[in-house]
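This entry is retained here.
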Amino acid sequence: MDPVSLDGLVPELLLPRTRRILLQDFSVPVDIGFHEFEVGNPQRIFVSVEIWLDEASFAAEDVVSTAWDYDFLRTEILRLVEGRRYNLQETLAREIYTLVAARAGVKGLRVATSKPDVYPDCAAVGVELSSF
């Protein structure tokens, strides 16, 4: 059976204006914090990355080779934190932001990090950088 053609069905008014991919709440163990009890004791950090792409960088066909590589995000974030310590979430967020912003096709970006285990009466504490 031939696939159904959907070409031309979306009215001009409803054509996509933006294209976004995301990595949400990626749990990463990070040696982070400036308090004495934090140094050398990795903590859970949640990392969320939202990337707005230009049309050419967003897969238009069901072909893996044209898709943006989600594995790149996970692998490179893990590589950034491996064997390294950070005093501040701001530094970690800035490095992730720079890593992603340098990729071709990125038109907008938001990176957020949060520490979920800091205060018993808060879901998390964190920082966010965005291009908008």
The helical segments are 70-81, 89-101. Residues 89-101 form the longest helix (13 residues). The chain has one domain: 16-130. The chain has a mean pLDDT of 90.
